[in-house]
Amino acid sequence: MIIKKPLYSIALLISVLLLVDTSFLLAQDVQPLWPEKVPHAVGDNDEHKPELTVFYPEKEIATKTAVVIFPGGGYGHLAIEKEGYKVAKRFNQMGIAAFVVKYRYGENYNHPVPLLDAQRAIRNVRHKAGEYGIDPQKIGILGFSAGGHLASTAGTHFTDGNPDSDDEIDRVSSRPDFMVLIYPVISMVEDFTHTGSRFNLLGENPDQALLISLSNERQVTQQTPPTILIHGTNDSAVPVENSLNFYTALKQAGVPAEIHIYEDGPHGFGLAEDNNLLSSWPDLCESWLKHRHFLD
């Protein structure tokens, strides 16, 4: 009995572990965007170090498509659990590798710092596509609220990379291959902007030219990536006109675009797991991505 008890305990432990959902272990791959010196950093603790948290799909359903996720928070905080980690796991179910970005924000990190973090995240994922098991031409971005503004900024202010950079990641293009924008802040100049996001990103008296540059409905071109937008008619924080105007600009530029407007969709619903109607938006995204041949 003295010998059998430990063996029994080990066998029981193994059995329990097999029954426990260990998918969270796959999300422990946290990577700094800049392993060494972080540009524009004003401190040295974790809040000053932008990073990626990687969530992998099960190998049996992996599609080689990736999405880089920017949680919202008005550029004043990050709703990283609700609009980051949970969403990443939901997209894993579609066979999509997900990368949640902890980007910098707040009074110490006005524009262009959040955009630099966003572009670096996209470049990082594309540069390491082979390591992540993804297609470098199937890397999209997803953003909520102010994270949607950051995503739409990355999707309209991308660059091909700097071929002369000593950092090989900075030589890679930051253009996303598609965009998923959920109740996004888009404009910085119209009366339907989110004033809190504008203040946190640009300060009290931003230059008018900068406001126009970061009003992304005005920055759409034929090279802007295909986009799907999700919004609620009764969003009182970020009015639906943000998505409507961006969709119109995409349509006028000939960019493939799709929009879904819920009659009852208040701001910040995330995955809306307790709402049968609102919770359908990930399925709408999946159908759109299949139509665009990103989930072949």
Please provide a brief summary of the model.
The chain has 296 residues and is an alpha/beta fold. 32% of the residues lie in helices and 15% in strands.
Which terms summarize this structure?
single chain, 296 residues, alpha/beta, 8 strands, 32% helix, disordered N terminus
Characterise the protein shown here.
The protein is an alpha/beta fold and 296 residues long. The protein has helices at 4-19, 81-92, 113-127, 129-132, 146-156, 195-202, 208-213, 241-253, 281-291; strands at residues 29-32, 51-55, 65-70, 96-102, 139-144, 179-182, 227-232, 257-262. An eight-stranded mixed sheet has the order 1-2-4-3-5-6-7-8, with helices on both faces. Helix 3 crosses helix 5. The protein is globular, with a radius of gyration of 20 Å.
Distance between the termini: 56 Å
The description of the largest β-sheet is:
8 strands, mixed
- Binned, the helix content reads 25-40%
Q: What spatial order of strands do you see in the largest sheet? A: 1-2-4-3-5-6-7-8
What's the pLDDT, averaged over the residues? 92
Quaternary status of these chains?
single chain
* H/I helix tally: 9
Secondary-structure element order, N to C: HEEEHEHHEHEHHEHEH
Alpha-beta content class: alpha/beta
**Beta-sheet strand percentage?**
5-15%
Total DSSP E strands:
8
* Shape by Cα distribution: globular
Topology, element by element:
Blueprint lengths: L3 H16 L9 E4 L18 E5 L9 E6 L10 H12 L3 E7 L10 H15 L1 H4 L6 E6 L1 H11 L22 E4 L12 H8 L5 H6 L13 E6 L8 H13 L3 E6 L18 H11 L5
Parallel strand pairs: 3-4, 3-5, 5-6, 6-7, 7-8
Antiparallel strand pairs: 1-2, 2-4
Helix pairs in contact: 3-5
